[in-house]
Amino acid sequence: xxxxxxxxxxxxxxxxxxxxxxxxxxxxxxxxxxxxxxxxxxxxxxxxxxxxxxxxxxxxxxxxxxxxxxxxxxxxxxxxxxxxxxxxxxxxxxxxxxxxxxxxxxxxxxxxxxxxxxxxxxxxxxxxxxxxxxxxxxxxxxxxxxxxxxxxxxxxxxxxxxxxxxxxxxxxxxxxxxxxxxxxxxxxxxxxxxxxxxxxxxxxxxxxxxxxxxxxxxxxxxxxxxxxxxxxxxxxxxxxxxxxxxxxxxxxxxxxxxxxxxxxxxxxxxxxxxxxxxxxxxxxxxxxxxxxxxxxxxxxxxxxxxxxxxxxxxxxxxxxxxxxxxxxxxxxxxxxxxxxxxxxxxxxxxxxxxxxxxxxxxxxxxxxxxxxxxxxxxxxxxxxxxxxxxx
Length: 391
Ligand code: TRP
What we know:
The protein has helices at 2-33, 46-55, 74-89, 113-127, 143-147, 149-153, 158-163, 165-173, 181-195, 209-226, 268-276, 294-307, 311-318, 322-350, 352-380, and strands at residues 44-45, 61-65, 93-98, 135-138, 201-203, 237-240. It is mainly alpha-helical. Helix 3 (74-89) links the parallel strand 2 (61-65) and strand 3. Tryptophan is lined by residues 63-67, 97, 99, 102, 190, 193-194, 202, 204, 208.
């Protein structure tokens, strides 16, 4: 008899937990529904969105992320980090995925990952992301997010994936070895990054647009197939930065792992050395002409971003003083602009346990969100047999 009572109490407890989870899920759903899931506006830029965000920041949930393949650089800072900070200050909810599983699409998981991930968290916080409000997480630690990949894979065709420009590029880059299965399907995984929290605003570079498009397609197909009366997933919108795309110091695309960037974490001397070695051209007169003089214009862009004024004005002031003068200006203004960020980063990187706490907290919050979404997905797909978050 006694055993029976205990059994009943246990069932009662489980029932209570199920109800609590369902309430949380419903509350979440109600909140997301307000974000007009039918919205199919095309790509937007930050300036274009300003008014809507100021009017109702709570209508937006931002998800974005950076592969942990090296320290973030000034291109990230001006192109995306500053935007995230600004939007967060306006009251927009911000989730940042550190997509560690994306690093194994074409290589082994390196032993430096823990350090790289901590470095990213330090970059984020140094740039001004508020860890008490943002959810910063690694996707390997959020199993429920990864599980969404299975139903999502069923919603895309192999031919569609083969057409994805980034996947095609990666196949070429793999030099005949051919893509891994994860490489081939990583845009679907990325759709899970975006849709697990039902984000509706995705700040990305142009190269990522096909991925956001695929996330939109998956959202639409899921809704059509499993929740036609009331769309479950909102349509995520890509958000492009208005900042000029910075080139690397060798004139090619600036990349974390290309050795041609100025890392946020670089010190003043390293910055000076990198800028001094930057490629220029043979004309003494300095003019702003991104088409014909990409390297000179890129240096002018950096100075302009730091000084928050037009690149052409800076060019005019330098005039015939040549590339050496331009470089001195870039070094000085960049170091000045970066000083407070670098000081914060230096403090943060000393406190590894704090960085880990931020991450642990982010992972936990991401899991709560992902569990609720997965439970709802199961319900929509008729694969929820015994109730509860995982049943
Ligand atoms: N693929 C992105 C990159 O290489 C990183 C990324 C992963 C991402 N998941 C994301 C970006 C979700 C935006 C949204 O930079």
